[in-house]
Amino acid sequence: MKREQVLFCEGETCMEYTVEGSGPPVLVLHGGHSDCRERLGTEALTGRQVILPSRPGYGNTNVDIGRWMDETADWYEKLLDHLGIGVVDVVAMSAGGPSGIHFAARKPERVRSLTLQAAVVMPWLTREDPLYKGAQVMFRSRVERVTWGMIRFGSRTVPERLFQQMASSFSLLPWSELQHRVTPWEKNDVLQLLTRQRSRRGFLLDLHHTQKDHTKKLSTLTCPVLIQHSRLDGSVPFTHAEAAVRARPDARMQVIDGWGHLIWCGPAAAETAAGLWTFLDELDHERGM
């Protein structure tokens, strides 16, 4: 069933979002090249109410909302107020990590817990990095539509070759090993993901915010924290998870036995979901829910 996208606006400034399901509310902050329609990683939250906004610059959310992380946090709170929701569990994925950390730090009374899934927490793709320079070209606003159009074309015409080319951006494993580890249905999931993705103005905004170290902010949080990451992550290195644990030694750390960054695909998805559910269920039990 297709999720219905809704706009929450103040004047001409809008945040796009979807709400699905019922139960204890979870605010999901998606990763890069995504928006509020994404289902990857949210299927595991059956029995919870999932609030999924398009982060600034993605979908139909104004990029200006993301000029400062504190302003973005204020808009997440406004959205929750608009929906009549008080306290939420926050799940922050990949490049959505800084947004989750700052929301939990700025609005501690609204956040019961924070889960960081393969999340950025410190400087990532710094300006000296060739990947950063390439991203500035491939994903700028007038080019990103063409970039993703080419990727979608490749997924239809040469799917195996496209997956092989993209694999190095997801996994540290060499192709000679990875090709035997990834199942055909996992490849299909990844290729389907690539056909849904768009960067719009959001990814360059992400690159701006991920130049900074967010671990100091993470260390100030008072809520329980779960960190989920694969050691073979080729997109957001495992050092981010290690830095998060140093910032929050009391955090729960789950090393996912996945082949790379996409811990929401394939066998790793079940492991990721189980760890998240255990964490949330224990919090429910502690509070007599």
Provide an overview of this structure.
This protein is an alpha/beta fold and 289 residues long. The chain has two domains: 6-123 and 213-286, Alpha/Beta hydrolase fold, catalytic domain (Rossmann fold, 3-Layer(aba) Sandwich); 130-196, no CATH class. It has eleven helices and eight strands. It has helices at residues 69-83, 97-106, 130-138, 144-157, 159-170, 175-181, 184-196, 202-209, 215-219, 239-247, 266-286; strands at 6-10, 13-20, 25-29, 49-53, 88-93, 111-117, 225-230, 252-256. The chain has an eight-stranded mixed sheet with strand order 1-2-4-3-5-6-7-8, with helices on both faces. Helix 1 crosses helix 2 (97-106). The longest helix is centred in the last third of the chain and has 21 residues, at 266-286. It is globular and about 50 Å long.
Please summarize what this structure is:
The chain is α/β, with parallel strands linked by helices. The protein has helices at 69-83, 97-106, 130-138, 144-157, 159-170, 175-181, 184-196, 202-209, 215-219, 239-247, 266-286; strands at 6-10, 13-20, 25-29, 49-53, 88-93, 111-117, 225-230, 252-256. It has 2 domains: 6-123 and 213-286, Rossmann fold (3-Layer(aba) Sandwich), CATH 3.40.50; 130-196, no CATH class.
